[in-house]
Amino acid sequence: MPYDPLAHVDADIRERAARIGLLCLDVDGTLTDGRLYFDSEGREMKSYSVLDGQGLTQLRRFGFQVALITARHSLSARKRGEDLGLETFIGVKDKLSCMDELAARHGLDRERTAFVGDDLPDLDCLRTVGLSVAPANAHPWIAEIVHWKTRARAGEGAVREVCDVLLAAQGHVPAILAGAAPGSRDGRHA
Q1: Contact yes or no for 86/66 (Cβ under 8 A)
Q2: Residue 161: beta bridge partners?
Q3: Model pTM above 0.85
């Protein structure tokens, strides 16, 4: 049987996903596995999944707005955002205000916004958006309050799972698989 991203999500999640126009993502513990690596010079290193990157690339191709919002001053996050062509906000003290300003700039409200996060700095955003999501390995306080928890862990395809659900809920999967979306099989930026 073909892969159906909507097979494991409730009808409520499908309905919420069908309304989303803006996806905001925390970085550490959401796009990464949450571990921080530092070299002998103190430079930060992180690992990102190309699966997640390809999902985010597909969202952008279908007109979704996508942004990274992280509290850390992470040059790695900035670089990953640039690689994917995403709006990237680092060192953010108030994620909710950042998300609201971004949504307003794109003519969207909180109901048409999704947020993916894993821990307490994400709590305000997760409580207010139309679709709140946590990776499988999110902190329990977060996992208990979100609309949906992915099956995949952070840094291991959790964000791709979210992207696939958004794309499927809005009817874009047939165009992707048929190669009808502009650059739909182009993996250069994933």
Answers
A1: yes
A2: none
A3: yes
